[in-house]
Amino acid sequence: MKKYWQHGLVGLILTALLASASIVQAEELIVYSGRKDKFISPLIKQFTAETGIKVVLHTAKSTALLNKLRIEGDRTVADLYISNDAGNLQTGTRLGLFQAIDKDITKLIPANLRADDDTWIGLSARARVLVVNTKAKDLGFIKSVFDLADPRLKGRLAITHSSNGSFIAGVTVYQLSSSKAMVTDWLKGMKANVGGKLFSKHSKIVKAVASGKKDVGLVNHYYIYRHLAKNPDAPIRILIPDQQDMGMGVAWNVAGVGMSKYTKKKALAEKLIAYLVSEKGQSQFAGVNSEYPTRMGVAAAAIVPAAGSYKVADVPMRDLGTHRIATLDLLDTIGMP
Question: Helix, strand, or coil here: 156?
Answer without folding.
Answer: coil
